[in-house]
Design brief:
Blueprint: H1 3-13, H2 20-27, H3 31-43, E1 47-51, E2 55-60, H4 67-71, E3 82-89, H5 92-101, E4 108-115, E5 134-140, H6 151-168, E6 173-175, E7 179-182, E8 185-196, E9 201-210, H7 230-234, H8 240-261, H9 264-273, E10 280-285, E11 288-298, E12 304-307, E13 313-316, E14 320-323
Parallel strand pairs: 3-4
Antiparallel strand pairs: 1-2, 4-5, 5-9, 6-7, 7-8, 8-9, 10-11, 10-14, 11-12, 12-13
Helix pairs in contact: 6-8, 6-9
DNA-binding region: 20-39
Organism: Pelobacter propionicus (strain DSM 2379 / NBRC 103807 / OttBd1)
Pfam family, one: BPL_C
């Protein structure tokens, strides 16, 4: 753990002041090193009181996407093995892909305060204003076949849905294949990218964008589908680092379960959370309806299953889904 993250953890574990002696003993560093870390935290926006003979006390923390702030809240085994925080980038997915090609470890996370070229499904643009949302990409190196890689999108969706519930008490729904909704409005999108050989996955990039604190005026006028944020729905701002840590912890648990038990448990939870569960839906391609029927779940590859009026099951690999 970074020294600054370790100091933040001590602040949060103690009620009131933390003595320099305790910090020195716990972290095995000198008083001079502690003072340097305290000053670095202050420059980053943390308000830390220092009182002779009493020590230090954290009074307030900024809403920063910093590796220290996230690491102090992590209890994950894989996710967050390395955390890269960028002020601005074209796309966190692109950055993570390049790092993965250079050999970055599984669990490496790339975050950005803003993106100039955020990507959504089917080449669409993901609006990425600064200072309000979570733009996150995670490198995984699962021992699976390439045709199984789409299953990881469903892990991401469940992790985001769980995290929203934990921090807001809002119960979101999941729309096939890669959106998370609140009251029918999009609050999060997922975009996975893969590098693979014929019979093996080199790595998968889990791209996750969550609208945390966007206001109504920050959404583009040309959105194809209604969108919202957790702030708009709950009335309360969300700490970005805290949400990120919760999401990485949830994803870490889901990934461990996936590696042990396969896709089945995640698939079951995803289906329960799906906005089409028990309902009729229409699937269109380019504006023309191609399938209409009852939601029948997803198969082992993540394809959408639709039961027609005659009982025949259609397998949908791509398209826009509308719940009727």
């Amino acid at each position: 753990m970074l020294p600054s993250a370790a100091i933040l953890r001590l602040f949060r574990e103690q009620d009131g002041f933390v003595s320099g002696e305790m910090i020195s003993r716990e972290l095995h560093v000198s008083r001079t090193a502690i003072w340097k870390q305290i000053n670095a935290l202050r420059k980053a926006g943390y308000v830390i009181e220092a009182v002779p003979s009493r020590g230090y006390q954290l009074l307030s923390a900024p809403d920063l996407l910093s590796s220290a702030e996230i690491a102090v809240q992590l209890d994950a085994v894989v996710m967050g093995s390395r955390i890269v925080c960028l002020e601005q980038t074209a796309s966190t997915n692109g950055d993570a892909f390049r790092l993965a090609e250079q050999g970055a470890a599984e669990g490496t996370v790339v975050l950005a305060d803003t993106q100039s070229g955020g990507k959504g499904r089917m080449g669409r643009v993901w609006s990425s204003p600064p200072g309000v949302n979570l733009y996150c990409s995670i490198i995984l190196r699962p021992a699976i076949m390439p045709y199984e890689a789409p299953q990881l999108t469903f892990l991401s969706a469940v992790a985001v849905a769980r995290s929203i519930e934990r921090i807001s008490a809002i119960v979101p729904e999941i729309k096939w294949p890669n959106d998370v909704l609140i009251k029918g409005q999009k609050v999060a999108g997922l975009l996975n990218e893969m590098s693979a050989e014929t019979d093996a996955v080199n790595f998968v990039i889990l791209g996750i964008g969550v609208n945390l604190n966007m206001t109504a005026g920050q959404f583009p006028d040309d959105l194809r589908h209604p969108a919202t944020s957790i702030l708009l729905e709950s009335g309360r701002p969300v700490g970005r680092a805290g949400f990120c840590a919760i999401m990485l912890n949830e994803l870490d648990r889901l990934y461990a379960d996936f590696r042990t038990h396969g896709f089945g448990p995640v698939r079951e939870e995803w289906q329960r959370r799906c906005n089409a569960h028990g309902r009729e839906l229409s699937v269109s391609d380019g504006g023309s309806e191609v399938v209409r029927g009852m939601f029948a779940g997803i198969d082992g590859s993540g394809a959408l299953l639709v039961s027609g009026a005659d009982g025949a099951i259609s397998k949908i690999l791509s398209g826009d889904v509308r719940v009727l």
